[in-house]
């Protein structure tokens, strides 16, 4: 083989190689499927509260059900 033939063989772009083209298409399709699954099942719906918003209520209870620990003082004149 002459040097010109070797140079042209090495100069071929990635689009000319069918294996690389096939792998690129497969990777892009897999990424699209993963994005579609996330979009359909895992994204937070519009208007929903952020996760963890009500952790305080879950652990300590709601403020409406809280019991006061202070004594009631009646200040009638």
Indicate the overall shape.
Answer: rod-shaped
Order of helices and strands: HHH
* Contiguous runs where pLDDT drops below 50 for at least 5 residues: none
In this structure, how is the largest beta sheet organized? none
In round numbers, the mean pLDDT is: 78
What does the radius of gyration come to? 33 Å
Overall structural class, as computed from helix and strand content, comes to mainly alpha
Strand content: under 5%
| Tally of DSSP helical segments | 3
How far apart the termini lie comes to 114 Å
Helix content percent band: 40-55%
Number of strand elements = 0
Report on this structure.
The structure is a single chain. The chain is built from 3 helices and no strands. With 77 residues, the protein is mainly α. The longest helix is centred in the middle third of the chain and has 24 residues, at 18-41. The chain has helices at residues 3-11, 18-41, 55-60. The protein has a domain at 1-32. The protein starts with a helix and ends in a 17-residue tail after the last helix. 51% of the residues lie in helices and 0% in strands.
Could you give a short description of this structure?
Helix content is 51%, strand content 0%.
Produce the secondary structure layout.
Elements: H1 3-11, H2 18-41, H3 55-60
Question: What are the main properties of this structure?
Answer:
single chain, 77 residues, 3 helices
């Amino acid at each position: 083989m002459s040097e010109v033939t070797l140079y042209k063989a090495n100069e071929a772009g990635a689009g000319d190689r069918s294996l690389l083209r096939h792998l690129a298409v497969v990777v892009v399709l897999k990424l699209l499927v993963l994005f579609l699954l996330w979009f359909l099942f895992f994204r937070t719906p519009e208007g929903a509260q952020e996760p963890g918003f009500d952790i305080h209520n879950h652990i300590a209870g709601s403020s409406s059900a809280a019991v006061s620990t202070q004594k009631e003082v009646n200040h009638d004149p």
